[in-house]
């Protein structure tokens, strides 16, 4: 029995070589990543450098760029199936950011902040004897050993978080998280505590329900391993499995990733770099539009596995 990959299932060399046909498209994506990385410091310098700016720029925008970079790396390897997971995160981040900035931004930011404070406090509390979290995770705690200095650092961290959560407006938001946590042992998502029941409703409130229905939901099936038709093709007499890597989909993943990038960067401009959008639009027309709109017609089909 060979330890090498079955080429019809995973042919790394073919996928990487095929991805080179999309060099221009992947180059566009990397240019957008580079632009985003330079936008981060520019936007923060132009901002009030407050909690909102930290959450929007250092959290949401950074996370968007993280997944955008993931799409580019996976695209260069011809691994478009896994890139779909990154695209799902890009879409969710873009929807969340747009929704956050559309209205009641400070309250939404505060809910996001409190949710993260609570999560850190919960994890740190696992290490502190006598807390409900330590009792809930007793088996895990029994295998851990902290020095006195390490334990003091953990305890001090929890106290600092408690102090923050005791002050307005965070105290009221913190209290709103408690019923769900007390009953189930974990927090509801921050947007649910704010008052929106689902990511679908977030998309609906910003007029992106079609994107959620036709793109996000489709990616969710891939993410959770429940989309059969992404993996197999059923014929009259047989079932054929698609290869692990699908380089022929590179142009599709690049186009969606670039579309979301244009949208997210413009959201940032309107918040913190108002004068930059016009130059960005010129750059798009002069350097990016033709490559973004280009249609690739390359036959990269490979044999599947017949069962």
Structure description:
This protein has 307 residues and is mostly helical. It has one domain. The chain contains 15 helices and 3 strands. It has helices spanning 12-19, 23-46, 51-76, 80-102, 105-125, 132-136, 138-141, 148-165, 170-184, 190-194, 199-205, 209-223, 228-231, 250-272, 277-293; strands at 232-234, 239-241, 305-306. Strands 1-2-3 form a 3-stranded antiparallel sheet. The protein is globular, with a radius of gyration of 23 Å.
Count of helical segments? 15
Main beta sheet strand tally, sense and closure:
3 strands, antiparallel
Strand order within the widest beta sheet = 1-2-3
- What number of domains? 1
C-alpha Rg, in Å? Answer: 23 Å
What portion of residues belong to β-strands? under 5%
What is the arithmetic mean of pLDDT?
Answer: 91
Overall helicity? over 70%
Summary tags:
307 residues, 15 helices, disordered C terminus
Question: How would you summarize the topology of this molecule?
Answer:
Elements: H1 12-19, H2 23-46, H3 51-76, H4 80-102, H5 105-125, H6 132-136, H7 138-141, H8 148-165, H9 170-184, H10 190-194, H11 199-205, H12 209-223, H13 228-231, E1 232-234, E2 239-241, H14 250-272, H15 277-293, E3 305-306
Antiparallel strand pairs: 1-2, 2-3
Helix pairs in contact: 2-3, 2-14, 3-4, 3-5, 3-14, 4-11, 4-12, 4-14, 5-8, 5-9, 11-12
């Amino acid at each position: 029995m060979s330890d090498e990959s079955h080429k019809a299932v995973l042919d790394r060399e073919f996928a990487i070589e095929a991805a080179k046909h999309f060099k221009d498209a992947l180059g566009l994506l990397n240019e957008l990543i580079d632009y985003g990385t330079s936008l981060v410091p520019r936007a923060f310098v132009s901002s009030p450098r407050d909690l909102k700016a930290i959450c929007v720029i250092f959290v949401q925008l950074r996370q968007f760029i993280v997944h955008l970079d993931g799409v580019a790396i996976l695209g260069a390897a011809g691994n478009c199936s896994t890139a779909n997971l990154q695209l799902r995160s890009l879409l969710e981040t873009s929807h969340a950011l747009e929704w956050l900035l559309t209205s009641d931004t400070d309250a939404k930011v505060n809910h996001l902040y409190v949710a993260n404070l609570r999560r850190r406090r919960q994890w740190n509390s696992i290490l502190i004897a006598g807390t409900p979290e330590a009792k809930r995770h007793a088996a895990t705690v029994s295998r851990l050993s902290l020095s006195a200095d390490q334990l003091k650092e953990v305890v001090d961290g929890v106290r600092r978080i408690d102090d923050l959560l005791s002050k307005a407006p965070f105290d009221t938001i913190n209290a709103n998280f408690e019923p769900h946590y007390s009953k189930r042992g974990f927090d509801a998502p921050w947007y649910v505590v704010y008052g929106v029941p689902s990511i679908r409703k977030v998309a609906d409130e910003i007029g992106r329900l079609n994107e959620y229905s036709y793109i996000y939901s489709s990616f969710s099936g891939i993410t959770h391993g429940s989309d059969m038709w992404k993996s197999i093709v059923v014929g009259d007499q047989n079932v054929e499995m698609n290869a692990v890597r699908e380089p022929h989909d590179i142009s599709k993943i690049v186009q969606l990733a670039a579309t979301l990038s244009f949208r997210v960067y413009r959201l940032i401009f309107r918040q913190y770099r108002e004068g930059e959008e016009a130059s960005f639009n010129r750059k798009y027309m002069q350097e990016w539009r033709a490559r973004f709109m280009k249609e690739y017609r390359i036959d990269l089909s490979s044999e599947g596995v017949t069962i």
